[in-house]
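Morning. Coffee machine broken again, so started the prediction first thing and wrote up yesterday's gels while waiting. Chain of 748 residues, entered below exactly as on the submission form.
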Amino acid sequence: MRAFSKMGFLAHPKANSFPDLCIVSIAAVSAVFFLCFPSAAQPLSPSQSKALLRLQRLLEYPPPLAGWSNATAFCYLSPSPSLSISCAGGRVTELSIVGGASRPLSANFSSDSFFTTLSRLPDLTTLSLVSLGLQGPLPAKVNRFSSLQVLNLSSNYFSGVIPPEISNITSLQNLVLSRNSFNGTVPGLHPLTALLQLDLSGNRLGPDFPSLSSSLVTLLLNNNSFRDKLPDSLASLDHLQKLDLSSNQLNGWIPAFLFSLPSVQYLDLSKNRLTGELPANLSCSNQLGYVDISNNLIVGGLPSCIQSNSSTRVVLSSGNCLNSRDFGFQHPSSYCNQGALAAVLPSANKISGSKSNLGLIFAIVGGVIAGAVLVGLLVFLIFKKLRPEDREANNIFSTPSAGKSLVLVASRSPAEARHMSRTIRIGTLGQTPYRVFSMEELEDATNSFDPSNLIEDSPQAQSYKGWLQDGCWVVIRHLKLRQKLSRRSLLQYMDIISKLRHHHLVSIVGHCIASGPDGGNTMDSVFLVSEHITNGNLRDHLGEWRNREMMTWPQRVSAVIGVARGIQFLHTVTVLGITGNDLNIENILLDQTLTAKISNYNLPTLPNLKSNKGGSESPLTGTVDKGHLSSIGTVANGEKEDIYQLGLILLEIITGKSMGSRSELDSLRAKFQKILADNPANLKGLADPAIRGSFALNSLRTVVEVSLSCISKDPKQRPSIDDILWNLQYSVQVQDGWGSSENLSFQM
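Came back before lunch.
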C-alpha cells in the first residue's frame, strides 16, 4: 500500500480504510504501519540515503525535509501531508514532497544537477515535487526513470521547452506539469500509450496543438497559448472523460465529434477564437454533463442536445453571436464576422505563393461581407418596426430619468426565479470530491492540532490550518453541537453540508464527527474541513497601499460576478436557501487566479428545525455575527439582505473606498443619482483613480446602476440575483467591445 494513490496526488488510502472513525486504537495503527511499510524489514542502501541527503541540500533545506541527517532511517519515516517516501528491497520507489514556496530557489540552484542526483534513485515509480521553487529548464535526463508512472512537477518555476525525451518514459500514467512557465511546442506524446492524465495547464505552451496518446482519460491544456485548429486526431480519444482547452487562442470550427466522444463528461472550450456554426443534427454523448463554449465567435443556433440546461447537463454559451437571447449574452453578428474573416484569410506568404487562389479568396471574403450586410439590414428593419414600448422592453436599460429604476428586472415570480437559479449550478463541477476524514488524518494535517497552526480561537469554534496528503492547504474548524443529536440525524445534516462546494465559495471539502462520552450513540462536535485561500481578500487588491497589484476594472467586475454566482448558488442549494450571509467585502477571498470565493457564509438548518432565516438555527456553533452595514434598512428578507450587501461591494470596487457610515452611503448614493440624471459622463470623477482611463463609460455606468438598485431602501425594489448577473455580464460585454475598439485604434 502506498502513502499516495497511484495517481500520485489524489487520496490517502487510510481515508478509504477508516472513513467514519475518529478514534483508532494503538493496535490498529500498528497493524496499518506494518501493512503500509513492508520496506521496514530492509533498510535503505547507503548510496540512496546519500542521494536523499544531497537532494535536501540542493532544495536548500525546505521545511518538509527538516531534521534529515546521516542517522535518518528514510524507509521508516511516517508519511505526512508534505513528505512521503516508500521503499522496496532497500531502494526508494516513491518520493513525494510538497512545499509552500512563494518564489524560486536561489540562483545557485541547477535543475541539471538536481535531476542528476534524482537519477541515483532509478527505481522510482512516483515522483511528486510540488511547490518547491524548482527553476530552470527541465533537463533531458528526466527520461532516466524507466519505471516512472507518476511525474508531478506542478506549481514550480520551470521554464523553456518540455524536453522531447519525456516521451521515452513509456510507463508514465500521470504527467502533471501545470502552473510553471514552460513555453514552445509540446513534444509528441503519442508514444506514451499508458498515459491516463495529462495536465499542462497554466503555462505558455503553443502555438501548435500537441500530438497525444489515445489512452488519455483527462486532458487539461487550459491557460496556454495554443493557436491551432482542433485536430481530427482528438476523435480517437475514446476513453477521454474530461477535456479543458479554455483560455487559449484556438481557432476554426468546433469538430462535432467532440460532443459525442463515448466517455466524455466535461468539455470546456471557452475563451478561444473558435468560429462557425454547430450542425443542427449534432449528437451528444449520454455521459456529457458539462459544456462551456462561451466567449468564442460562434454564430447561428445551437443543436438540441446543448440548447439549454437540464437536470443532467449544464451548458454555457454566452459571449458568442448566437441568434437567441435564450443563450445568454451575445455579441452582434458583426463582432463574430470580424473573427471569421481573420480565420478565412491565409497568411501573406501563402497568398504570394498561390496567386491562382486570389479570386477564390476574394469571393469568399466578398460573400462573408455581403452576408453580414444582409443580416445587418434585416436586424435594422425588424427593430425599426418595433413600437417604442417594445423597443424599451428589449433594451437592458431604459433611458435614465429621475426617480425611475435603471436596472431591468424580469417579470417572473420568486418561485420561477428560484427554479431558474437551481439549473445554474455550473460552479459545482470540477470541485474536489467531498469525503469523510478520520481523526488520525486531521491530526496528521495539523501536527496533532499544534498551537502554531491555530488561526482562530473563540468559545464557539477553533480553526486550524493544515496540509492534506495531496498537498492542499485546508482550514479545519472544530464546531460543537448546540444540542445532542443522534448519529442518524447528524449524518443527515452532514449530507446537506456536503453540498456546499462551488467555484465561488470557500468550499467545505469534508468532515469528521467526534463521538460523545457514551461511545458513539450521540455526537458532541464536528470538524469541518474547508479550502484555505491565502491570497488576501477583495479589499486588499483594490489599493496599492496593501503592497499588492491593484485590480483592473475588468478584473473587479469579474470578481463581483463570481460573488454573485456564489450568492446564486447559496440561495438555491437547499429548499429554503442559505440567505442572510455575512457578505462583507473582507469575507470575499481571492485565490491566485483572482477568482472570488465567499467565506463565512451561513450553514444550513436541519429540515426539522424551526428557523426565522436560513442558517440562523444551524445545529453547529460558530455562526458569524453580521457587520454593522448589514443591518441598514432592517432587511426582513434574507435574499434581499444579501443583495444589499452585494451592492455595498459594488460601490467599493467602483470608488475604491469603503462606506464607513450610513451618512457616507446616503451622500454617495445622492451623488451618483444626480450624475446619472444630469450628465453620466461625470461618473468618471467618482471612480477609483487607480482605474480611471481603463474602463468604458457605459460599462462603469451599468455597474453603478446595478449597485444603486441593490442598495435601494425599499427591499422590494432590489433586483433578483439572476437580474444582477444578467446586467453585470452585459457590462463585461460593453467593456470587451470598448477594449477591442481601443486596440484596433492603436494598431491603426
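The CA atoms of residues 61 and 67 lie 9 Å apart. Going to sketch it on the whiteboard this afternoon.
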